[in-house]
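Appendix C reproduces, verbatim, an entry submitted by the partner laboratory led by Prof. M.T., so that reviewers can inspect both the input and the predicted structure.
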Amino acid sequence: MSDKDLEARHLETLDRDLGRFANLESAAAYVSRPLVAPGIAFVFIILAGLAAALLLGQSGEALIVVTAAVFGAYMALNIGANDVANNMGPAVGANALSMGGAIAIAAVFESAGALIAGGDVVSTVAKGIVAPEALDTPIAFIWAMMAALLASALWVNLATWIGAPVSTTHAVVGGVMGAGIAAAGFGAVNWGQMGAIAASWVISPVLGGIVATGFLWFIKSRIIYRDDKIAAARTWVPVLVGIMAGTFAAYLVMKGLKQLIDVSMGTALLLGVVIGLGCWVLMIPVTRRQSEGLENRNKSVKVLFGIPLVVSAALLSFAHGANDVANAVGPLAAIVQTVQTGSIDGEVAIPLWVMLIGAFGISVGLCLFGPKLIRMVGSQITKLNPMRAYCVALSAAITVIVASWLGLPVSSTHIAVGAIFGVGFFREWDAERRLKQSRMTIPETEQLTPDERRRRKLVRRMHVLTIAAAWVVTVPASAILSAILFLILQQIPT
């Protein structure tokens, strides 16, 4: 065999070996990819614990706070993974935002809302579910808050894994209730408040669905079904954007900025009216310029709703960060103050380092695990476009304002998802109505069969059942888990 043949065989063997190494590297990368996000989350949780340890030094009490900080960071990650989908899902599903753009906007505005307008004080027993006197010793209170925090985080984590958007507030409430029952019996629970929370399972999605359906019907009747869609859009899009601007102004003052600006409901609504009228006037020439040269079809009209939809998603994220950060850091802050003062009275201030854990935890959880629920909310329940997503976003703000005015307990998660259900079911009804009208002109042989019409349902029933079941189970599941954890924690010697 010549030297040339030997060299060729050697190169062929080398190519095969390099190919094996490449396949091995690809396999290793494929296996390790799912572990990257949990690994980063684990590092964040450890850093939160280390930060608490550095701030508090070494003592038996510090170990309790460090453990609580770890649980609080874990809960914040889960809030970011689950709750934020309600704000960004519609915009992503409507293709008004890319997934990367949605995550970037949400991370910035969630953190800003938490740090700028997050609650300065939070009741030591969430939502008045358990009477403070029922937890008669500081250590019992600490274990109860610890159990509630971990139980709610575990439940939200499970819900995210199965693809069900749930209310983190309800998870925390269930956790507090379960720990309270384990500590002092069923008599310690405020069952009237629990009844109101149970009622919100129905009130929230129904109100959200009704409001979103009403706006979608208005858009279809006043713009989509008109002969000259562009002329109709020039008239009504500024009005709709003005309504959105005014609503979100009132919503942010009432919910997102309530710790910075203490205003009454009437003042907030008046401010919303003024800002809404101003935006309506400003949008008239803007809409006219945007609509120049557009074709007279539905796709052209959708373009005019893109920017308002992005702005609404950002504002919803700001308000969410301001409100729901307390679900992660409220129990943690209560534990910190109880450890430092030995008192379980009244209200507790949230230290800055505790708020930072909540704010950054929500953003990190969103970036690592948020896309799954964002896709679920945005596209897997029903197909959204900018107009339908606009109705969902506006419904979320209007329903919270109306519920606050009426004194009804509602969940922003349930409202947003209920609005998506409402939009989807309205589309089904409207499609069926138009189909019946068209039967008069279509030969019977060309009409759709009942089986084909059922196949073309616009809302995926499987997701409806999964999400509804998760909503109903959230409070009792968190309560049971919390009670078990409380009984385990009580066995720890102090």
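The chain is about 80% helix and 0% strand. Additional entries are available on request from the coordinating office.
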